[in-house]
Specification:
It contains 11 helices and 13 strands. The protein is an alpha/beta fold. It has 2 domains: about 200 residues, NAD(P)-binding Rossmann-like Domain (Rossmann fold, 3-Layer(aba) Sandwich), CATH 3.40.50.720; about 90 residues, UDP-galactose 4-epimerase, domain 1. The strands form 4 sheets. The protein has a 7-stranded parallel sheet with strand order 3-2-1-4-5-6-11, sandwiched between helices. A two-stranded parallel sheet has the order 7-10. β1, α1 and β2 form a beta-alpha-beta unit. The chain is globular and about 60 Å long.
Length: about 325
């Protein structure tokens, strides 16, 4: 089985490469990694440095790999950054998806394709309608959400108009070991790890935003397992990937506090409080579970511990992002 993973050097990509290789696949990575950036995952058979916005380069890359399965993860993934530069996020994410889908249409039309989209497309609170299912209207509330909704619609169009075998996943919040700055669990774990490295400190005061916000968190290792199962099922359409329950940011702080000897306090940083915040998001995974039997297996407490250990290791080695 030949597998192509775009965004293979990213947070989710690294875990997915490992998952696919463990199942016996020959995995090729593709992305825009520059010299001096993180090395490609060791399980890759090769890595192609390609900008998917370059249509010809994308087609040549796909043709050279001749993949049977393709996971499209490459994207500008920060909600906060999308507010700072909406055009960059929307243009990059849509153009990259278009380049990949057009390359598949021309060079590998029989391949099964998973396009990683996002629950940010829904833009609704769980209080409004209960757990959010795949049939809920898309009404994103951030430029990143708009970009992912556009990619989702584009992927659905290519399945309809060109007969491509496309699965679209709408993953809710996912975290775990290897996640860099800019995401709540990683930022909290990074602050704790750096404080622990100072032998003179007995406490850490974490910078937080609105801690009453609630999100549906799943371990990244469970998420990539869902992706792998979906392409193996030979299906099409849209699927939520989520735990199905929400936790408050205060719960994340308390969970991380259980794994450190430091006394943990918090302070509200106005820069971390979003003006257009959706207060609670919770998804339904019924469609995914009914098709594949997938359920999240890693408890949130184990995810928080693994994330903190990853940051401790990087801080200790002086390689923390």
């Amino acid at each position: 089985m030949r597998v192509l993973v775009t965004g293979a050097t990213g947070f989710v990509g690294r875990h997915l490469v490992e998952c696919c290789a463990r199942e016996g696949a020959e995995v090729v990575g593709l992305g825009r990694r520059r010299e001096g950036e993180a090395d490609p995952p060791p399980d890759l058979s090769r890595y192609l440095r390609v900008d998917l916005r370059d249509g010809q380069a994308a087609r040549e890359a796909v043709a050279s790999v001749r993949p049977e399965r393709i996971f499209h993860l490459a994207a500008e993934a920060s909600v906060a950054a999308s507010w700072a530069s909406p055009s960059a996020t929307i243009e990059s994410n849509l153009a990259s998806a278009l380049g990949l889908l057009e390359a598949v249409r021309r060079a590998a039309p029989e391949a099964s394709v998973l396009v990683a989209c996002s629950a940010e497309e829904y833009g609704v609170s769980a209080d409004e309608s209960g757990p959010v299912g795949e049939d809920h209207p898309l009404r994103p509330r951030s430029p990143y959400g708009v970009s992912k909704a556009a990619v989702d619609l584009l992927a659905g169009f290519y399945a309809y108009a060109h007969g491509l075998r496309v699965v679209r996943t709408r993953a809710f919040n996912h975290t775990g070991p290897g996640q860099g700055p800019g995401y709540v669990v990683a930022d909290l774990a990074g602050q704790i790890a750096r404080a622990e490295a100072d032998a003179q400190r007995s406490a850490v005061r974490l910078a937080v935003g609105d801690t009453s916000v609630r999100r549906d968190f799943t371990d990244v290792r469970d998420v990539v397992r869902a992706y792998h199962l979906l392409l193996g099922a030979g299906t099409e359409g849209a699927f939520n990937v989520c735990r199905g329950e929400s936790v408050a940011i205060t719960d994340l702080v308390a969970g991380l506090a259980r794994h450190t000897p430091l006394r943990v306090e918090t302070r509200t940083d106005p820069a971390l409080v979003r003006e257009h915040e959706v207060m609670e998001v919770r998804g339904s995974r019924e469609r995914l579970t009914a098709l594949t039997g997938w359920r999240p297996e890693i408890p949130l407490d184990a995810t928080l511990a693994a994330a903190l250990d990853w940051w401790r290791d990087r801080v200790g080695r002086g390689t923390a992002p």
